[in-house]
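Here we describe the complex-level prediction in full. Unlike the single-chain runs in Section 2.1, the four entities below were treated as one system.
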Amino acid sequence: MLPNPDEKLDPRIKRTRGLILRSFEDLLAEKNFETISVQDVTDKAQINRATFYAHFQDKYALLDYSISQMFMQEIEKRTLNVCHYSSDNLRNLILAVCEFLSRMHTDCAQPHQQFEALIEAQIKQQIFGLLSHWLEQSKSKVPAEIPATVATWAIYGLASHYSHTKKRPALEKFVDEALPLVAVNLEQFA
Amino acid sequence: MLPNPDEKLDPRIKRTRGLILRSFEDLLAEKNFETISVQDVTDKAQINRATFYAHFQDKYALLDYSISQMFMQEIEKRTLNVCHYSSDNLRNLILAVCEFLSRMHTDCAQPHQQFEALIEAQIKQQIFGLLSHWLEQSKSKVPAEIPATVATWAIYGLASHYSHTKKRPALEKFVDEALPLVAVNLEQFA
DNA sequence: TCTCCTCTGTTGCTTAGTCAACAGTATCAG
DNA sequence: CTGATACTGTTGACTAAGCAACAGAGGAGA
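The structure predicted for the assembly as a whole is:
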């Protein structure tokens, strides 16, 4: 199930996954995640329901995959996936998470309890992976687990807070204010 | 090859044809028809080149199909396919052909000699079929071939002329002026 | 309670799509 | 002229997607 992310693989598979993803993201803009059935997704994607199950275990797996793909794109756009720790990169990462969650809230119909929890788990996993990658590239051989965990939660918390505020002004200012608090946990290990 | 237009048929077939069509129409907006290769189409459509040949004999067959589909849509939009002869319907038909050709000229990159000839053949075939259908529904048992032919060429000629004029103003006025000249050939048989 | 209905996962067989390889044609440059 | 390159159209063996049918899990309502 989804073994190779973007290696050479059968074009039919790439195409089918693309159709499922697009269909799902369109549906998320219309309806609540809880009310979206696998049937809905496959109907809109013009594929058979059985085919869906050849690619994803269930709609929760699809959500995970979808979120991680979208977030990964956000990260790759800013080339944060191929770099090391720096104050500037950290700043960009926080910006990315804030913007991603904000977009999520404006694009998706009624964010629901369970839905948000699933997103949170997935995004934190991504952030943690990225930070670990950054820290492990440094000369310091200290294990990165603790500082990466702290920073991950801090960053997600900031972004969640930001994206939930009614009128979101001045993202730049918000991030600049928060940045040093997160940076202090990381720079000693980088 | 393309046996059933929109009967129940394998969703893979519908989907694949749709992908080929969209890809082709996008390409037409970018490049000259002559310079579009089957490879180009299949690359953009994300399908295998061999699959293309399972659906269309060559790119000329694709052009025919594409044109006829687009034109048919234009016709169905105005519900001209399910009606009989009347001055008003004829007027709408002329309008449809004019608008279709005009759109063709604005949407497609450099209309070329051969390209225009292929379109002309296809569209005239459609118009002829439609007019024959109208005339054969009338009580007059006279064969419709001759008047339908005359009107077909007249209508296409008008539309071609209109769509080639540099600044196209007042389509309505243009059609109202031309309408009686075409109508006189048809109404005696309807 | 029972039935009706909708959605979920799963299965074995069928069919469309993919692949790689082939021969044939055309164009272009050295 | 010759080799390189690019596109066409076709083939047979392989693989993903479609289908229809199934059992099962709720949920709504009489």
